[in-house]
Structures are given as structure tokens and as C-alpha cells.
Amino acid sequence: MQLTVDSEKELLAAAHEIIKYAGEQTIWLFFGEMGSGKTALIKAIARAMNVEDNVHSPSFNIVNEYRNANGEIFYHFDFYRIKNETEAMDIGADEYFSSGNLCFVEWPEKISGLLPDEFLRIEISIVSETARKINITHYGRASQIRI
User: 42, 48, 58, 127: which sits with the fewest CB atoms below 10 Å from its CB?
Assistant: First the structure.
């Protein structure tokens, strides 16, 4: 699936589309250069999922936990500052990933050896100062059975 957004209103609409497309997938990997809008998209997705917490990049503490009005838990990771996969293992990344809760992962390329076999890949490209192209793809065993 491919989306193009050019405003905050369009970003929220895109978030709803991504949620529908994701289905039951709990691991969402966000790719894009610095400043492409990974955190902004995660904020829009959290808003669409009724997360009431203040969503922000967990750059310095690596992971943030959010809850929505239904009590569902969401984990938001930012692996930009880690030096190696051992740091991610030390915070229990694999336990978070296998928890069954939604995990939003920024800079997943830094922990490629720890990623599960199935995930949603969300790639954000800068089109202009305000516009972004978003490509969303299912990967793993579940993607093989999708129609």
C-alpha cells in the first residue's frame, strides 16, 4: 500500500488507513531518514488508536509505553542512539516484541538481528518540505497468505 500526505489532517487519515491495513500485525517498523516524519506518523497512529498519553520520541530512554482509553498497551522504540544490538537485548526488546502488544520501532535497521520474522514495514520518503510518501508492506509468513 502506498499513501501520500501533505498535511496534518491527511496524516491522521493515513494513520487510519495504516491501522486497517496492518490487521493483527503487532510489530511495526518505521524506516526513513532523519526528519522524514517517523515520530509524527507514530503520534498520528497513536491518536487514531485513542492513546491519551503524550507521544514523543524515546530517543534517550529507548522505549516509551503508552496506553489508550481501553487499557491497551503500546510500546514506542527509538534505536537511533544505541551502539549495538546488545543494548537492545539489555532492555528486553525481544520480550517486548513477543508481548502481543503493538510495538512501533524507529531505526529498526540498528537491531536487524533481533527483529521477528513477521512485521509491518512502513517506509517514509520526503517528497517536499511538507509532503511525504509512505509505503506500507507486510513481511513474513502472514504476508504470504494475504490476498
Answer: 127
Is residue 106 in a domain? yes
Task: Note the pLDDT tens digit of each residue in 53-85.
Answer: 778 777 667 899 999 989 999 999 999 999 999
Domain count within the chain: 1
Integer Cα distance of 44 and 80 in angstroms: 21
Return the axis-axis angle of helices 8-22 and 38-48, rounded to nearest 10°: 70
Q: Using one digit for the tens of pLDDT, what is the confidence trace for 97-120?
A: 999 999 999 999 999 999 999 999
pTM here is 0.90
Distance CA 77, CA 131 (A): 24
- Within a domain: 147: no
Q: Residue 60: which domain range?
A: 2-142
> According to DSSP H, which parts of the chain are helical?
8-22, 38-48, 85-90, 93-97, 141-144
